[in-house]
Amino acid sequence: MNILHLIFLSVACGAISMAITKGSILNGFHVWLGKRFTFMEKLLSCPWCFSHWVALVLVLIYRPIVVTAYLPVDYFISIMVMVALSSITAKLIHWAYSDMQ
């Protein structure tokens, strides 16, 4: 997997995180989860927090590797790079649609 794949996955991670945490269509689901699991309410209100879990899932599925030293560390670094890049995507999405609300 090359760096372009990691960038695409990072953009997807940011978009998924913003859609799930800030999308009004999922408000009912957020309330339902928040009543049952209090930590989920906090997690689903923070795109940055949620993006770590999305990045973990994407890394487990697609296995992008940024560096090659020791596989568990390689995956951890890939997750952190993906989260950092996804935060840029999330910020751009927020900036683009903040005027529409």
Properties at a glance:
101 residues; 5 helices; mainly alpha
Task: Please give the structural blueprint.
Layout: H1 3-22, H2 27-36, H3 38-43, H4 47-62, H5 71-97
Q: How many E strands?
A: 0
Share of residues in strands? under 5%
Mean pLDDT: 89
Q: Tell me the count of domains.
A: 1
Instruction: State the separation between the terminal residues, measured CA to CA.
Output: 38 Å
Main sheet properties: none
- Would you tell me the structural class of the helices and strands? mainly alpha
Instruction: Return residue spans where pLDDT drops below 50 for at least 5 consecutive residues.
Output: none
Radius of gyration: 15 Å
| Helix count, DSSP H or I runs of 4 or more residues | 5
Helix content: over 70%
What characteristic shape results from the CA principal axes?
Answer: globular
H/E element sequence: HHHHH
Report a brief summary of the structure.
Helices cover 78% and strands 0% of the residues.
Can you walk me through this structure?
The structure is a single chain. The protein has one domain (3-96). It has 101 residues and is an all-alpha fold. The chain starts with a helix and ends with a helix. The model has no long low-confidence stretch (mean pLDDT 89). It has helices spanning 3-22, 27-36, 38-43, 47-62, 71-97. The longest helix is centred in the C-terminal third of the chain and has 27 residues, at 71-97.
